[in-house]
Amino acid sequence: MRAGEKRKRTIRAAVLKWYRSHGRELPWRHERNPYRILVSEIMLQQTQVSRVLLLYPRFLQRFPTLGHLAVARTSSVIKAWRGMGYNNRALRLQQLARRVAAESNGLLPRSVEALMLLPGIGRYTAHAVACLAFGRRVPVVDTNISRILRRLFPSMSSFTQANGNDDWARAAELLPRRAAGTWNQALMDLGATVCVASSPRCDQCPLLSLCPSAHRVSRTKKRRTKPESGRSGIPNRIYRGRIVEALRALGRGQSMTPGTLARKAVDDFNKGDRGWFDSVLESLERDGLIRRRTRSRISLPA
Question: What's the pLDDT at 228?
Fold first, then answer.
């Protein structure tokens, strides 16, 4: 059932009024450069806003355009990504830059469908870039917006709760005719600062009188995830990050032996860990994050 038109108008008006006074001041929101907006969205995928605020300007100073990123050494890109975590994003971003530089004269595509064909671009990022960089009237659904929608419309079915499609349909229904970018950012901020997962601040919410979940939710249930493989209770992604960090400290042309790398990345490393550590190195090599110069020397990719 579609939300009533009157209720939708009331929701929009309340959120946008709140946003004018309480929206976050973020540098990428003043951007109209599609590349810079893309970089911010890739960074924000799995990194806290406070961290991105520090590292975003540094990265853009090093790679001010998509063309600069495309021709850079991959090792330089990985080094510039320091502090962001999930280093695969840096590789995918450069792969995207190289493809766009080669195939589209350095111009990012404008449609959601074309953006989703690029490396590292999923549904959310494609919609965000299409909306925020190119003014397309499309919904954007991140975890914050999803949380708001599910609290505003608790009758959403268990099936759609699982696959998220109803979130996107409902978000599309709520889109204003104009200024979709402002609306999507307003919802993001409301979810990030007021309608938070744990102990939402309902008394501060502009939708208090419209929300059937107000004062009834203490915490959003987290989806169960499979335990990650690792060592001594520490997941492999932590060790992957430590390995890349150790290699970042090397100068250009330098490399490290697997043994030295293991001692830097793994506390109390012993001979019994060699098979496991080799498998972690193999996963990094498959992803393109490290390079074996010889069997006994490892570095960042060229």
Answer: 67
All domains of the chain in start order, with CATH: 31-108 (1.10.340.30), 230-299 (1.10.10)
pLDDT of residue 222: 60
pTM above 0.85, yes or no: yes
The confidence score (pLDDT) of residue 233 equals 79
Label residue 32 exposed, middle or buried (CB < 10 Å: 0-12, 13-18, 19+).
exposed
| pLDDT at 33 exceeding the cut of 80 | yes
What residue spans of the chain are helical by DSSP H? 5-22, 34-44, 49-62, 66-71, 74-80, 88-103, 112-115, 123-134, 143-152, 158-163, 165-174, 180-193, 236-248, 258-265, 274-287
Q: What 8-state DSSP symbol labels residue 138?
A: -
Task: Tell me how far the alpha carbon of residue 17 is from its chain's centroid.
Answer: 27
Tokens of 67: 């063309």
The pLDDT score that the predictor gives to residue 96 is 98
Q: Annotated catalytic sites, by residue? A: 41
Contact by Cβ (8 Å): 148, 190: yes
Q: At what angle do helices 5-22 and 180-193 cross, to 10 degrees?
A: 70
Q: Measure Cα distances from 90 to 148, 164, 295 in Å.
A: 30, 27, 26
Angle between helices 180-193 and 143-152 (to 10 degrees): 80
pLDDT confidence band for 160 (50 / 70 / 90): very low
Q: Token pair for residue 124? A: 């959310």
